[in-house]
Design goal:
Length: 755
């Protein structure tokens, strides 16, 4: 009798053994999907990890069906799954659930359809459009939505019956997201016969341009030297760190390395931290590599991700995969090079749900399995990567000159504490910032304003009694979103309508405190009504094409002032940006985390680098209440080395990375006394084995999320310790705690190498 060990796409440890019926013996193989029963009535699509003759000590249920004629999971992928599950202490079922597109975990897969909006044919004329707009004069919301649609689709460029710009397809979701309207408003315009809805299949594979190698630019002398050094370092090291200042032309170096790898008949994995970055990079790379590039990230439809997965298994796979962290799970047959751009970015670390893996580490492991090389590129290296380079574990190559000898931007530090004390500043904008913005707009240049908090205000407060609305599920105040007239929890999504009066004292003096990107947009619009303003944050980029729309409009000059969160700091390239405003550096510097200064430096240096990339030297206005902090001067002088030297001894002294590994143990329960006693027990067990390597248990900064009370235990492990043995002890402590009936519904999980 043959048996199969399978992985189920569930939060379950280990594998499950099923019997292989005689009629399926030749059909079942490693890496194939099979339908198996679980419990009395449920069935799941499982992944076969091994087929063997070892009879288990229990009666096995039989496999019901085999779904694949050949494997959809390659051996190297399975090994990567197993490494992630072991290293990050997650269930192998969680890795399966995260790694594969939903369409490969379901039986009845159908391509995803999306609703699009277009202009009715009878209104595709300049005069007819005026008639439609006049007809809506008493329906202001409908009129606004129509105006937004015309701008998005470029029908507003209509002259006669011809559009001066190419008409763009607009999805209903994108129109709703941009115009902050409801489906009923769009339906009203459809019922009037002005707009038309239609369905379109989404998720089609990229049919990029043909390959034009002659378009690949020649490298400058500094770039050529960096390229040669990287190849030389690859002779001795499997991983090389390319430390290049912003706008030094790292992408050009990547392109030449990719071209060389493709000439050797090998594949390239190019990882980016944010989906937003793929918009610009995709357009750039397609000019050089055309149809040989596949795009893969979570904002693409499931249909497309399934098709990319299947193409990678075919005899004609993509030579280059460009994607966010999930692209590391794709099947590769002949991987030769992994490029991890902006390697310092925290977005590479998966937070929720499990597996809480770091795509940078997973990609390095994947490359090693193929004998491939890994290039880490950034202007602001992570402490861990830079330390590995200094210690000789990684190769190190530097690019210290901006392309075409362009100067780094001038950074002007503005002490807003002093300005506020002298009543010279109200709101988020200092006088020097307003002067710089006014001059840039007057000269036809562009401006970026960076505020790392979305929404209108972080909270609202009653001026009389101090009441602040809080989430009913989490220990946080609610954030005001003015356009939706809602208070929202950014942890669980709970919403609460903004009250007209205080529920405690009935005062009507309720005001917002602080400011987010939405408020920044409102106030800058009042000051500069002539500016064409766009906002880029999680609220404005929920639809699949919203990233591309905002970035392309800014690149083309259709907008000239961009307000955004950290999304705008991640490697975007805009020619005409001359001024960048960092509105509140202190919100990053005062964060309660040992990495606060490191992350603040990275974010400020990166967003500063968006200024003056081509043309004249750019200007950055950095607003802070703490101009005396060394990290501020390190940003001003772009002195990463000084930051590293200042932090490295502190990290060594207080036992933090890169000298120690960190593991967070989280315990969650609906009742605070239960989770508290469980955490005390868990901590005491760990101290028996690890001694003073254990800190806590303590309450985290947000001690209740989604109605669950939380405790955290910190485990600090010196480099060189046997991590496999450590994981065994952590699991042992978990089992001992969970055996107690009081903790039957306790949740325990581990975050290895947290950020």
């Amino acid at each position: 009798m043959r048996y199969a060990d399978v992985i189920l796409p569930l939060h379950l440890e280990g594998m499950f053994t099923y019997a292989v019926p005689d009629g399926l013996v030749k059909a079942v193989g490693r890496g194939m999907r099979v339908v198996v029963p679980l419990g009395r009535s449920k069935t799941y699509i499982a992944m076969v990890a091994e087929v063997h003759d070892r009879q288990p000590a229990f009666e096995c249920k039989p496999i019901m069906t085999v779904l694949d004629p050949r494997p959809v999971l390659l051996d190297t992928q399975l090994r990567l799954w197993q490494w992630i599950a072991e290293y990050y202490m997650s269930a192998i079922g969680d890795v399966y659930a995260a790694a594969m597109p939903a369409g490969l975990k379901e039986e009845n897969f159908r391509p995803k359809m999306e609703t699009y909006v277009t202009l009715h044919e009878r209104y595709r004329h300049e005069q007819a459009l005026h008639v439609a707009l006049n007809m809506l004069s008493r329906a202001s919301q409908q009129q606004k939505v129509l105006v937004d649609f015309l701008a998005l689709s470029h029908y507003d460029t209509m002259e006669g019956d011809t559009c001066q710009e190419e008409v763009v397809e607009i999805s209903r979701d994108e129109l709703i997201n941009t115009s902050h309207c409801t489906t009923s408003t769009v339906k009203a315009l459809v019922d009037r016969g002005i707009l038309v809805l239609y369905q379109r299949e989404v998720g089609r594979l990229n049919n990029g341009q043909e390959l034009h190698q002659e378009q690949v630019n020649r490298l400058s002398q500094p770039q050529q030297e960096a390229y040669n050094q990287i190849l030389f370092q690859f002779l001795r090291k499997n991983v090389v760190l390319l430390h290049g200042v912003t706008s030094s032309g790292k992408t050009e170096v990547y392109i030449h390395l990719m071209q060389k790898t493709l000439s050797e008949k090998k594949q390239v994995l190019y990882l980016l931290p944010e989906i937003a970055l793929t918009v610009q990079i995709t357009q750039r790379l397609q000019r050089f590599f055309g149809h040989r590039i596949g795009i893969y990230h979570s904002r693409y439809s499931d249909a497309e991700r399934v098709e990319v997965w299947r193409k990678q298994l075919s005899d004609d796979p993509y030579d280059i995969i460009l994607g966010a962290r999930s692209a590391v799970f794709l099947p590769f047959q002949r991987l030769g090079l992994v490029i991890i751009d902006e390697e310092h970015e925290t977005s590479f670390k998966q937070q929720e749900p499990s597996p809480r893996y770091h795509a940078r580490s997973a990609a390095i492991v994947l490359a090693s399995m193929f004998g491939a090389k890994t290039l880490l590129g950034t202007a602001t290296p992570s402490m861990e990567s830079y330390h590995n380079a200094q210690a000789g574990k990684y190769g190190l190559v530097t690019l210290t000159q901006r392309h075409r000898d362009m100067q780094l931007p001038e950074i002007q530090v503005v002490d807003i504490k002093d300005l506020q004390r002298r009543k010279m500043m109200r709101g988020p904008f200092s006088p020097p910032l307003l002067i710089a913005v006014r001059e840039a707009l007057k000269n036809g240049e562009q401006v970026i304003l960076f505020q790392n908090r979305r929404g209108f205000a972080p909270m609202i407060e009653c001026k009389v009694c101090g009441w602040v609305p809080r989430c009913q599920n989490c220990d946080v105040s609610l954030t005001l979103h003015k356009t939706m007239n809602l208070l929202t929890c950014h942890y669980c999504g709970y919403t609460y309508t903004v009250p007209s009066q205080c529920p405690c004292c009935e005062s009507k003096e309720i005001r917002g405190r602080g400011f987010g990107t939405e408020k920044v947009e409102d106030e800058i619009r009042d000051i500069f009504p002539e500016a064409r303003i766009a906002r880029m944050d999680l609220d404005t980029t929920r639809s699949k094409s919203a990233y591309a729309r905002i970035i392309n409009d800014f690149s083309a000059g259709r907008t000239n002032l961009l307000v955004g969160t950290q999304m705008i700091s991640k490697g975007l390239d805009f020619d005409k940006v001359s001024v960048v405003g960092i509105l509140n550096a202190d919100s990053m510097l005062n964060y309660p985390d040992f990495r606060a200064y490191e992350h603040a430096f990275m974010m400020m240096a990166q967003v500063s680098g968006r200024s003056g990339r081509k043309g004249k030297q750019g200007k950055v206005i950095l607003q802070t209440k703490s101009p005396e902090l060394p990290v501020i001067q390190q940003v001003v002088h772009n002195d990463y080395r000084a930051l590293y030297e200042a932090l490295v001894e502190e990290r060594r002294t207080f036992r933090y990375p890169p000298f120690y590994h960190i593991v967070y143990v989280y315990l969650k329960h609906a009742h605070d006394p239960v989770v508290d006693s469980a955490a005390v027990l868990f901590g005491s067990l760990l101290r028996q084995w690890f001694g003073d390597r254990i800190l806590g248990p303590d309450k985290p900064a947000v001690a209740r999320v989604k109605a669950l009370c939380i405790r955290k235990i910190v485990v600090k492990l010196e480099n060189g310790i046997d991590l496999r043995r450590v994981r065994e002890y952590l699991r042992k402590a978990q089992r001992q705690v969970m055996q107690d009936k009081r903790y039957a519904s306790l949740q325990v999980y581990f975050d290895v190498d947290p950020l």
